[in-house]
Amino acid sequence: MLKPILYSKYIVFIWLVSAGCLFAERAAAQNELEYVGELGFSVGGAQYFGDLNTRGALNTLKPAIGIYYRKYMNDYVGLRAHARFMQLGYSDVYNKNEFQNRRNLSFNTNLWELSLQGDFNFFRFEPGSLYERFSPYLTGGASIFHYNPYAYLNGVKYFLQPLGTEGQGTALYPDRKPYSLVSYAWLIGGGFKYNISKKVNVGLEALYRFTQTDYLDDVSTTYAGPAAFPALPSSQPTVAAQLQDRSSVKGSPIGVIGRQRGNSRDKDQFVTIELTISILFTSYNCKF
Questions:
Q1: Which residues contact 174 (CB under 8 A, 6 or more apart)?
Q2: Is 185 helix (H, G, I), strand (E, B) or coil?
Q3: How far apart are CA 243 and CA 150, in angstroms?
Q4: What is the H or E stretch that residue 230 is in?
Q5: Which of 66, 78, 182, 242 sits between 20 and 30 A of 217, alpha carbons compared?
Q6: CA torsion angle 75 78 83 87 (round to 10)
């Protein structure tokens, strides 16, 4: 009678040990760590390209800062929302082309942007891993942004869109309407990212915008001419008349009616080059 009892005890003991191991294994599986996303910050420079910077020169980089959240879909694909503030600007004083230098136009603008981007890693990227913590990546998407170009005259700042420097809103040019200060852009870019710890990623990214406006710089078509800007009662030229043609500073004015001021066939563009740092978010995921 002793052996059956011993056998039953052994069976119960083995069952309890097995159940405990199975429970521990399932608990570990249910508590498997998974990276779900990251909250990050970006800082760098922004460069404008357009009617004033036709050479694609990177000689007037201005500040750009941002904040973003990237959702991990898997180890290769992520979706990102990125909000940025940046400054853009350029001046004809940088141009060696004789006409552009004589034109003597300039602008600056603050720009607020919200973008939606898809990121694709070339390599498997797994934060916390010893071997899969670095990857180059491609990114693309679209953004909406607000801008408001301005220039200085005798040390005073003037926003250019209300002035209609190309005759917008005047009786002489009924077909030229004031341009919108909100536009959108298509984005394409790439970068590198590196996981320095289980909680932190760093990276470097260049992102190019093909905007759908030609007025980041307030320059697009032809000169409206002095007749579009009647003089003040004091016979002095208006601010709009002076800012639509700045060539008189360097000699005889060139802003006659119909003369090319900008190139309306091409939209303005800009690029950001940014360093990024982000904090990772994790969750516990069950594989069973």
A1: none
A2: strand
A3: 10
A4: none
A5: 66
A6: 80
The domain made up of 33-285 has a fold known as: Porin (2.40.160)
Question: In angstroms, rounded to a whole number, what is the distance separating the alpha carbons of residues 153 and 84?
Answer: 29
* Start-to-end CA span in the chain (Å): 43
- The dihedrals phi and psi of 180, each to the nearest 5 degrees, come to -75, 145
Residue 17 has a CB neighbour count (10 Å cut-off) of: 10
d(CA 191, CA 203): 7
Query: Across all residues in the chain, what is the average pLDDT?
Result: 89
How many whole angstroms separate alpha carbon 259 and alpha carbon 252?
14
Asked whether 217 and 209 are in contact (CB, 8 A), the reply is no
| pLDDT score recorded for residue 26 | 43
Calculate the alpha carbon distances from 173 to 3, 167, 288 in Å: 109, 6, 70
Q: Quick check: 205 and 271 in contact, CB under 8 A?
A: no
Whether 148 contacts 158, CB under 8 Å:
no
- Tokens describing residue 118: 């898809």
Tokens of 111: 């720009």
Which pLDDT tens digit goes with each residue over 216-256? 999 999 999 989 999 999 889 999 999 999 999 998 899 99
83 pLDDT above the threshold of 60:
yes
Per cent of the chain over pLDDT 70 is: 87
For 213-225, what is each residue's pLDDT tens digit? 999 999 999 999 9
Q: Is 277 exposed, middle or buried (0-12, 13-18, 19+ CB in 10 A)?
A: middle
Contact criterion met (CB below 8 Å) for 281 and 35: yes
Q: Mind listing the pLDDT tens digit for each residue in 26-39? A: 433 444 667 889 99
For the chain, domain boundaries: 33-285
- The tens digit of pLDDT for each residue in 188-218 reads 999 999 999 989 999 999 999 999 999 999 9
